[in-house]
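Hi L.,

You mentioned the student needs an example of a multi-chain input paired with its predicted structure. This one should do, with 1044 residues in total across all chains.
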Amino acid sequence: MPIPQPWTLGALAQACDARLEGDGSLPIRGVGTLEGAQPGDITFLTNPLYRHLLAQTRATAVILGVTEQQATTLPRLVSSNPYLCYARVAQSLFPPKEKPPGVHPSAVIAASAQVAPTAAIGPNVTLGENVRVGEHCIIEAGCVLGDEVQLGAAVHLYPRVVIYDQCVIGARCILHAGVVIGADGFGMARGPEGWVKIPQVGRVLVGADVEIGANTTVDRGAIEDTVIEEGVKLDNQIQVAHNCRIGARTVIAGCTGISGSTHIGRDCRIGGGVGLVGHLQICDGVTVSGFSLITKSITEAGVYTSSIPSQPHRVWMETLANLRALPKWIKTLKALEREWHNRKENSV
Amino acid sequence: MPIPQPWTLGALAQACDARLEGDGSLPIRGVGTLEGAQPGDITFLTNPLYRHLLAQTRATAVILGVTEQQATTLPRLVSSNPYLCYARVAQSLFPPKEKPPGVHPSAVIAASAQVAPTAAIGPNVTLGENVRVGEHCIIEAGCVLGDEVQLGAAVHLYPRVVIYDQCVIGARCILHAGVVIGADGFGMARGPEGWVKIPQVGRVLVGADVEIGANTTVDRGAIEDTVIEEGVKLDNQIQVAHNCRIGARTVIAGCTGISGSTHIGRDCRIGGGVGLVGHLQICDGVTVSGFSLITKSITEAGVYTSSIPSQPHRVWMETLANLRALPKWIKTLKALEREWHNRKENSV
Amino acid sequence: MPIPQPWTLGALAQACDARLEGDGSLPIRGVGTLEGAQPGDITFLTNPLYRHLLAQTRATAVILGVTEQQATTLPRLVSSNPYLCYARVAQSLFPPKEKPPGVHPSAVIAASAQVAPTAAIGPNVTLGENVRVGEHCIIEAGCVLGDEVQLGAAVHLYPRVVIYDQCVIGARCILHAGVVIGADGFGMARGPEGWVKIPQVGRVLVGADVEIGANTTVDRGAIEDTVIEEGVKLDNQIQVAHNCRIGARTVIAGCTGISGSTHIGRDCRIGGGVGLVGHLQICDGVTVSGFSLITKSITEAGVYTSSIPSQPHRVWMETLANLRALPKWIKTLKALEREWHNRKENSV
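Structure written out for the whole complex:
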């Protein structure tokens, strides 16, 4: 754990807009889980299933919800949204690391690039022609930005991010190591002698406050732009194909793949390992369970699922055999039904 | 969109081998979709579903098929394969960006490496011993090529491609950012105290005109080589395990994983998110639907599928419960059938 | 194939603890498959299905099991575990490539970093404050290690590995190109105006003798650490989310995703393309078939499966339609059963 900033419990209560119960002058030196917290730490309870752990916690203070406020006599922060409160407390204790502004001498910066004086450019970074880097940006070691790339203010690129020519990243975005923005979409036409590449001349536009996880890839548009709207959160190893649009504040878990030209609405929650085929329209507020496949557009908010939980192998093999044998059983059932009704009629 | 080369409609007709209808002297300054095109752009119609958009398009010219040639009075290029025609038009307007030949001073090149004088080696590139780089290659910033790697002519490596020792990349290949070629295959033997690594001493051989998407990985062979034949197109985040062979002109969409020693034929089309288990032989001309699993060799061309589209969560949970309950229902059906036949016999 | 070290068959027998049959003075110059081996190579037979290939092999010597020892008259190494024997023979012939110790002048090393004198630091490597690099480590070109990262002895980082601040890598680990260790876990709380990031202040701890495949990502813990125990082997493009623990000697194949806080036991074997949802406990000795989904904790060793092999598309579409129609068929069956029993009662 990095070394936290010094805070008192009372100051944290203000920072996270919670009601303080207990001694506000207590110093808080870190965070911990209910089970792992040490004296000096603040912990939190968001799931009533873990309420019994309150009795044993060694934490100095607890964040919890209004309905749980009597569940402990420890000094506490009471909030209508204790998880959000924890987020703000942790942000207070562990603010983003600062990097001293300036350009590392090993960075290779095109003469036409414009780098704000408060930006920090790390070792071996490469910035192409006419790149624009906003105030307070951090570009860590080994990042490569193509020509005409634009970064808004306070963007943080972790090491080895690659952004192809002309892509635009909004303010306060965080891109983790290995992210690739703006590689060519998978477009080609079949000719008599093989596949002919279709130049991908659109860009990727990423809105403000987007976070993109390690090794995730977002392809540039074929003609128009691929768009990630503001506040979207993408986990690791997601693939976003060309011409997709992902609506504001939508969150997508790891290993999900989104095929070309699919548009996802706002405030959606897409699980991990999900597949979305191309050219779909997914409306706002859709939740997709992990490991599901979406093959049709969705026009109504709600939860959509096709994931199949595993069973012990032998049981599953029987399930699978039964599934495969369904045509036979349905035939048997139909024959039986027919015979039955014939007999009934005859016997009347 | 990058700035296109100046062309006239007539010159484009020649470039894509299409029949010109209308004024060949019109300048074409860009491309656009039917809905997004601006005056000066050329657009295309390949799917009759979008024919109604022709009436409103602001494009200066249209590429379309022989059967659609009367669907507009705009200047047009008529082709038996309008999508291929569009590919060639877009290639004419947007030729690959050229990089000035030469080696960036920050590149680290082994003394024994041979770099063709027309090749362009970007910042912070590392080339190992005896690497050979062909004419007109472009190696962008941060690429690392191990010892004895060979690149044919006009290969384009985007930033941060890694190629391990001894791998061979054919002419005109395009490898996108984050691609890793030739990492060790997943080979180990169980010993009394844990797993013992099996040295992976094969190479990866990539044929000519292959394109490999961002963050895709192709492992080196355990003993013999992993082979990607000419004209193969791999999308992003694909995993190709050791000793695989992928036949010429096969295309594979993103997030697909191919297990060790599986051989895929020529002219196959593998969807996204597909899994192929190891040691399979897939014949030429096979199509696999996205999100399907291939567990057996395939000897006949055709389409293969096991993907399950999602449903509203409650409906799917019922479907799943029914699937799990099949043994019970089949037992009920069998009993009913037996009783019925007993009764019939008795009543005769 | 790299150039092997010179060995005699007799020396190899000792190195892999096998019984020698035949001339121990024969020089062995390489390895080959039964079909591909050349004179001078040693090959191996581990699967009796391939026994017939022994007759034609051109190999100079063969590794095989006790039960197969009479299947050839070639010089041979007889072992109770011929695959393990092959692993050790191949390790003898192809020892890991050595890199001369020292720091490449282009590397950027913080003044407070401690690098063992026998370590080899390649071009354009970046080491942060207080990094510690053990004896005989190899850090290849373009790797980036954040502040306070610790590498045990003889760790091998292939090019472009990124390790975030404070993560710890055990002795003899091998991390392949593009691996990202310690990126932020996917943690956020919903606030009134969007998602609020939860600082991820845990680390990643990787035990000794772990191998991690190309482009695999392991996220740092939210509060406590993400842990990969000793001897674990991870294939390419695996995603391990925050707070996971993977038990000793567990092996996981490519493209698998493990959601947050899931703990996997020791000596498990997880197939490729598998999904595990979050907060599960998987006991020791569990095998998960490729492309399966685990949604519940597992308390008993064994094989677990939910993968569905593909069928010809038309057959699969019928299977799927039958699956969807199950409620209708079950209703029909129930009605028939009810009528049948009513009739029986009436007819008594």
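You could point out the following to them. Chain C has a mean pLDDT of 96. The longest strand of chain C covers residues 41-45.

Best wishes,
N.
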